Amino acid sequence: PPGRKVLIVYAHQEPKSLNGSLKSVAVEELSKQGCSVTVSDLYAMQFEPRATRNDIVGCLHNSEEFNYGVETWEAYKRGGLSNDLIEEQKKVQEADLLIFQFPLYWFSMPAIMKGWMDRVLVQGFAHEFPNCYDSGLLKNKLALFSFTTGGSEEMYAKGGISGDIRYLLWPMQHGIMHFCGVKVLAPHICFAPEYVSEEKRKEMLIAWAQRLKTLWKEEPINCSPEWYFE
Amino acid sequence: PPGRKVLIVYAHQEPKSLNGSLKSVAVEELSKQGCSVTVSDLYAMQFEPRATRNDIVGCLHNSEEFNYGVETWEAYKRGGLSNDLIEEQKKVQEADLLIFQFPLYWFSMPAIMKGWMDRVLVQGFAHEFPNCYDSGLLKNKLALFSFTTGGSEEMYAKGGISGDIRYLLWPMQHGIMHFCGVKVLAPHICFAPEYVSEEKRKEMLIAWAQRLKTLWKEEPINCSPEWYFE
């Protein structure tokens, strides 16, 4: 609906890829609805995935023994995080919906996107004990993981060789998003696009555009072990 | 035992951290046993986590549309991967045991270590369909995930707010190591070292050294959904 803000965190090297097209479809469809859409194109930004001392501007809280979690927390409170992190945090703060668009690498997100999680979602900004899970600091936001796989749907079935695809969603959806208080919409998965016809890939794009039309009416999943493991 | 080769892939910024000490304890104890130990200290190496065109030396197989998986597979076959990847692959090839030492970041490994997985374990080297899972190309090797957590053991119990710690081991142990044919030893977990006494942290180091003394007699876990989810 008009006025809603969406941040798409996108991790693919190739604009012509299916991931690139899925991202473009989302920008187009959500803009058409009147949403304001921002894209963090991580490879194009050469986004830094490594959590290092460079993320803190100025002096350290404890320069004797570097603790990344403590240092970024302290830096956040005094406005001393590096500019690239402040920029991403602003985008997250303003967004009603976060869409993560990526190819599945090793049952998870590519390292460049994991680095975005590691570095952007710092304590004080996204969570601050006891404000985690349902009372995480990013509550009232939604997240959706949209990704492509190498393996087929059969491999990722319960009893399949790679196990139920939901097993691998636990760390990303529960461990990251739910921990920060973000409500999770059902994932959007395109299985094995490299092994299907061009026509089938076009259908995948149409299905995504179709889902986005009614996305704001969707209810979040019940992000508890039952959803993943039963 | 004398002659066994161990690669420790280590991801912590601070040598004085518990992770740094756990790494040193392993180097010391395994060397004392007569093993030959190599450490990949990822932050010290400023290891590159991003999967990009730079990983391929020379021309691309398809320069019209960049596909990282296909390009690294092709480059591997013709000896055209970047030097940092060739170095890491040599270390893996020679190792009987891989130890991954890291602090848990967001229910997973830090991005710099995820980048090691994404970039080093390329098709052709670590797997090549149908050589995956029990027939993965790195069979006859062992792996062990050794990590510290922020949350307590109670939070990571079955029924705890963060769910059974085994849930989050699935992508790392099954999705990566088992996929490559590597057999997995039980993980070594130090819960919440930041919230315990200095004495308790020393006990953690002693327990790790103790375990390493009989490590080569251990049987791998049965890496199937039952181990993780039942």
TrEMBL record, chains A, B:
UniProt keyword Ribosomal protein present: no
Requisite cofactors: FAD; Zn(2+)
InterPro entries in alphabetical order: Flavodoxin_fold, Flavoprotein-like_sf, NAD(P)H_dehydrogenase_qn
Gene3D superfamilies for this protein: 3.40.50.360
Assigned EC number: 1.10.5.1
Domain Flavodoxin-like fold: residue ranges: 5-212
GO cellular component: cytosol
Catalytic activity, reaction form: 1-(beta-D-ribofuranosyl)-1,4-dihydronicotinamide + a quinone + H(+) = beta-nicotinamide D-riboside + a quinol
Entry superkingdom: Eukaryota
GO terms assigned for molecular function: dihydronicotinamide riboside quinone reductase activity; metal ion binding; NAD(P)H dehydrogenase (quinone) activity
Protein's UniProt keywords contain Cytoplasm: yes
Cell compartment(s), UniProt: Cytoplasm
Pfam families registered for this protein in UniProt: Flavodoxin_2
SUPFAM superfamilies: Flavoproteins (SSF52218)
Protein role: The enzyme apparently serves as a quinone reductase in connection with conjugation reactions of hydroquinones involved in detoxification pathways as well as in biosynthetic processes such as the vitamin K-dependent gamma-carboxylation of glutamate residues in prothrombin synthesis.
Family per record: Belongs to the NAD(P)H dehydrogenase (quinone) family.
Protein known as: Ribosyldihydronicotinamide dehydrogenase [quinone]
Taxonomic source organism: Himantopus himantopus
Gene: Nqo2
